[in-house]
Structures are given as C-alpha cells and as structure tokens.
Amino acid sequence: DFGRSSELAFVVEPSDDIAVQEQPLILYCQVEGIQPITITWRKNGVMIVDSENAFMLANGSLYVSRFQRVRADGSSDEGEYDCMAQNHYGLVVSRKAKIQAATMSDFHIHPQNAVVEEGGVARFQCQIHGLPEPVILWHKNSVPVNTNNERYTLLPKGVLQITGLRAEDSGIFHCVATNIANVKFSREARLTVSGSHSTVYKDPMILVGPENLTLTVHQTAVLECIATGNPRPIVSWSRLDGRPIGVEGIQVLGTGNLMISDLTVQHSGIYVCAANKPGTRVRRTAQGSLVVQAPAEFVQHPQSISRPVGTTAIFTCVAQGEPPPQITWLRNGQILETSDHIKLKNNNSTLSIYGINQADEAIYQCLAENSAGSTQASARLTVLWADGLPSPPQGVRAETVSATTIQVSWEKPLQNTKEIIGYVLHIRKAADPVEMEYQEAVSKSTFQQLVTDLEPSTSYSFYIKAYTSRGASKASEVTVVSTLGEVPAMPSLFIKVINSTTVQATWEPSIKLGQHEGFKLYYRKVHLSQYTGPVLLASNVTAYNITHLDASVVYEVKLLAYNQHGDGNSTVRFVSLRETVERTVLNPPCDCMKDEQNNKTSTTGIIIGIHIGVTCIIFCILFLMFGYRGRLLMCKNVQEQLSTPQIPRSQRSATGLVLNGATRRDRDDRDLNGKQLDMNELERLFPASPSQEQQEKGITSAQSRSASHDETQISTLPLDEFSIIEEQPDPLPKNPHGSSPAALAPDHGPANEG
C-alpha cells in the first residue's frame, strides 16, 4: 500500500502489451477510494470516447473489439494508453501502457551452404524481426533437429552450431520462425562433410565472437563464441574489468557459448571470449558488451499529509532504475507548473509548496520513467482550515528608514480579532526564492516592526499573518520596498615619504568599503584652510604620489571613497618632510656606482692581504726552522775549529755528544730559551784563554781540520740564517805563547755566530 492515497489510488494499472491484428484487446484498470469515482481512458493524451470499436467495461477496464494496426481512416490502435480516476478529493493518472501490434517481417538472413571437413565445426544462422520476438527452430531434411544431441547447439537468436562433424551430419537445413502474428520458413542450405579428420596443426581461430546486447532485468543473455583449430582450442570467458563472472545463473552452451539467466544490472559489462591452444599461451580473443536495463521503481513513495493554511508542504519521491529515471509531478492529473511558492529540488525528487492555501489541496502524483519502463505513486495534500480564523491583516505599508533598516506597519484584521495571539511578519529579498523567506514574530498589540540588518540598495517583500491558537489567517497583501543606498566606508590610508619633495599615499581595497566608484584625495599645508584637490582616482587604484611639496612645513592628506549615493567618511594623515631633509644633509646620498666600485676594490684588497699574510707566516716558520738548524751546525764547527791540546779528544767528543744530544731538547724549548742555551754551550767550549801563539796554531790547525772535515757545512749555510750574539768576555791572563783572547776569533764573520 506504499504510495497510495487512502482517498483515491490504483489497485491495478494497465500494462504494456502486444496485440494481434483483428483480435480483441483488454486493458485493465482498477481503482479504490472514496466513492463516487469516475474512470476515463486516454490514448496518446487524448480522451477516448466510447464507440463500437473501443468502450469501457463496468469494472473500469478498456475493451478494444478488433485491434487494427492501421484503420481505413489512417488511424491506429497502437499507442500509449492511460487510465484516469477522479473523486471529490482529486484526480490520479495511471502509468502509460505501450500497446503494439504483433508483426513478423521476412527473413533478412538465411542459412548458407557449407562444406566442412570431418571433425570440424559447422554454423548456420537465420535472422528475422517480429513482435513478440519470434521463436526459431531448425529442421534437417524436413525433420526437427534432435536437441538431445550434445553436438548440436541451438541459440535463441537463430544460430545452429554443430561440432565434431561426422559424415551422418550431412544434409539439408532450414529454420522455422513462429510468433502470435505468423509462421515463416527460411531458405534451405546444404551441409557437406568432406574427407577424414585432419592432423595438420592449425592455430586457434574464433569464427564468431559475442555481439553487443541490450536487455532488461530478468531476461536471458546468450553470448556466442565458436572457435576452431587443431588441436581443438579451449574456450574461456572473463570480464574486461577483472570482476568475476560468478556461477549463479551461468551456463555454457555447446563448446563455448555463455548463457546468463535472470539478468540483473550488475551483469552489465564487457565480456571477453578467449580461444586457447592446449598447453600453450597461444590464444585469440573477441569481446562484446552487455547492457542490462532496469525499469523505474520507487525507493521512497510520497506520503499524504495534512497542513494548516500558510505553512509549507513537502513531498518526497525517490526512484531508481537503469538508466536513471526522469521524475515528473502531476497535480490532479495535470503536469505541475512551478511558481514562486511551488518549487522542485533534488532532480525533481522533492516537491515543496510554500504558504499553502485551500487552492493547493489536491492529489499530487510522482511519475518515474526511463527507457525500460515507468511507474507512478500518488499522495494527497489536505489543507487544514478552521472556521472563525481572522481575516488577513489590512493596510500593510513599508517605509525605508536607512540603508539597512525598513519599518513595516499594518492594521488589525477586519474579522475575528478576539482570539489573535500575535502576528508574524514574513520577509525575503524580492529576488530570492520563496524558501529563503524568514519570519519575525510580533505581539498582538504591536502594529509595526522595525526590520534591521538589511542590505543597502536591495528590494524586500513583506506580508503579515495573524495567528490564533487554532491556526493562521490568510496572508495579507504583499508590499515591496527598497533600502536606501549606502555611501562607502572609510578607507585605510598610509603615508610614505619618498624624498624631500614627494610622499606616497597608499590604501588597501576592502569589501568593507561597500559599493564604490572611486576615491578622492585632498592635501594641504596645515596652516592653510584651502585643500589641493580633489584628485579623482579609479576604484582599482591603490596608490598616488604627491610631488612638489615644501620640506619646511607639515602637510595634511585626506582620502575618501565615493559612489552614486555620496562621499564616505574620510581618513586623515599628517606628514612632515623636515626630518628627511636633515637626514639628507647629515648623510648625503651615496654614489651607488662609486660605492659599488669601492666595494669591489676593498674586496680585492682583502683577498690580496690574506694571501700576503699567509705567505709571511710560511716564511716565518721556515726562517725559525732553518735558523735553529744553522745555529746547531755552526756550534759544531766552532767546537772543532777552536779545540786545543788542553782539551782531551775524549772530552771534545763528549762535549760534542752532549751538544748533539741536547739538540732534540733544544728544539722543544727553543721558543723560550734557545738563544741563552746556545751561549751557555759556547762558554763551555772555551773554559780558558790559551796563549797567542797557541791560539794562532790552534786556529791554523782548526782551519785545516775545518777545511778538511766541515768545509761543506760552513760554506753551504748563508749568513742570513744565523743570529749574531756578541759578548764582551772578561780579560784573561796571557797564555805562555802571549796570545790574547781576541786572537781566538778568526778574521771572518762566522767566527762569532752562535
């Protein structure tokens, strides 16, 4: 009973049918509801008048005595029929029933002669169009083909397949097509089976692949696939989208034809037939699409409702199908026209009626239709109306107060005012749909309302209803009025000093300004009363440079936005250029090119200085290393040159060993006391002053030894690598040879090196 109005609803509706020429046809229609109920019929939207050929039975069904596809006057009994039922609650229309004449055309494909070798595959086909779909049977040698033979496969579309051919399969074949309109025979075709079974290898090949099919749910689909090859190929099926085909309702006919029974929408897809050579990956494929349609059916039916006057009624009708159905609404059998208070939303699934009144009381129908079929459901709207309700409020007026405020006033109703508990003011923008309306409640003793927070330069509509505990009055007359225009708001202004004679005024565009045509800019010296300006600027301009200013005074800058309603409030800023002038005197502007050149020169100098510093450090390290080494070598030479017979050879050797042994320690401590250590070593080498003669002999002997032993060491060390240490020794007594200490020193520079 879902979707039925208890006042009036269909129990049986006419269904699609195929009529036989010159035979009677009955279209059924049964209605339940509150009597009296009147039933009428329409064909292609035109009322059917009772006649000898077509008239209505007592139970409401339509009887066509002799159905004719084409009558003598050119008319036809074919078409779309619907049944209408009406009582005092409203009118409902049944679904459309499509009536077609049964027909059968001639065969447009006949079977062809075939010669096939033994063990091969033979295929015959014949095709014919008709309503209803003809049933095709095959005859061999004028006898119906034995369908119990598993090598013979008959497909619904008029195909005969014979596999594993044998000599006894040879013969003459033809097909017979039958439906309620006629019976027809095709031409004959001869099958000849030749030779014996061949053993020559043949690649798999698909003779016939699946066709593209469009069917309706619950029908049966047969996808043909016949393949040949030697060895005999294996035929398999799959879906192109990778989804499993499933097993329920699936059957293989013959050697590879796929039959799917009781189709559903989920069976739609592209099916792939593959012929595989056994034991290899050699394969051939063919594919065909299957489209399964589903007639429209309701997921949610509209429900009958009762609503007070002035409220909103909503009907919901949700349908599904494949392809998705189109939804149409009827009001008492007529297509519903939308208006300001009747709206369709959500692809016509939702019907909303705003501010209902008694004229909206009717039966509303939802028709869902697609290429696979149609269906309908109905519901009734009852408008509740209580006696003694107030009449509509009178004298509704609206006056504009400002850009965002309107004052609405009214007078009390003329009738039934005692039970009024208040008023409701209905407000919406005139350009908005009815569903955007909102309300404001007002006490029963108040006859005016100030409506605020409106938008400038916008039209609004207003109407009033008076409410009692039993319901609302009808709506008053609607009045429409517009708010005033609004001048723009204050813009934000910033001042930036460019130089001693120029400042830049900048501002930011903002939606808070409202509608504006542009900006006006003024400026003046603060001690003057006269402004310079206005400078008119477009609405998309956000900056302006004020030039030729006097740096010695303070300026006032003023900016405002304007539109057709006038000038907005201005934003004022003060600016002084004196500090800029003082900074310029103290810090003259730089010569950028010169500074850039100086920067480049300074950078080059820094790099050169770093290289020089690193070089100096390296030379200092080398100087210290080689200088110290030279001093040690010189000390050894001086020891050998100045040794006398007074110093035993063993002592000299010991002294030399001590000096050489001290070399490592001296290298460790040379930064602290290297020079002092060198002098101590020299003093230990000269404990006394020998005589002049002995000294001379000693020098001669020392020079001779030096020339023969250490000549290379002395000559290879330059003077620059030695530091000179001069001392004044105390006078020593003359030695037996009369020589003085000074005579110990040789007459060339290196004798005094330490």
Automatic annotation (TrEMBL):
Transmembrane segments: 606-626
Record InterPro entries: FN3_dom, FN3_sf, Ig-like_dom, Ig-like_dom_sf, Ig-like_fold, Ig_I-set, Ig_sub, Ig_sub2
Record-annotated Fibronectin type-III domain positions: 392-486, 487-583
Keywords in alphabetical order: Disulfide bond, Glycoprotein, Immunoglobulin domain, Membrane, Repeat, Signal, Transmembrane, Transmembrane helix
Biased composition regions of type Basic and acidic residues, renumbered to the chain: 663-673
Family: Belongs to the immunoglobulin superfamily. DCC family.
Entry membrane topology: Single-pass membrane protein
Pfam families from the UniProt entry: fn3, I-set, Ig_3
Polar residues bias: start-end ranges: 643-654, 689-706
Organism taxonomic ancestry: Eukaryota, Metazoa, Chordata, Craniata, Vertebrata
Subcellular locations according to the entry: Membrane
Ig-like domain sequence ranges: 8-100, 105-192, 204-287, 295-382
Protein name in UniProt: Immunoglobulin superfamily DCC subclass member 3
PROSITE patterns, alphabetized: FN3, IG_LIKE
Keyword Glycoprotein: yes
An annotated GO BP: cell-cell adhesion
Cellular component GO terms, alphabetical: membrane
SUPFAM superfamilies: Fibronectin type III, Immunoglobulin
Organism of derivation: Cisticola juncidis
Chain segments carrying region Disordered: 643-754
Top-rank lineage group of the source organism: Eukaryota
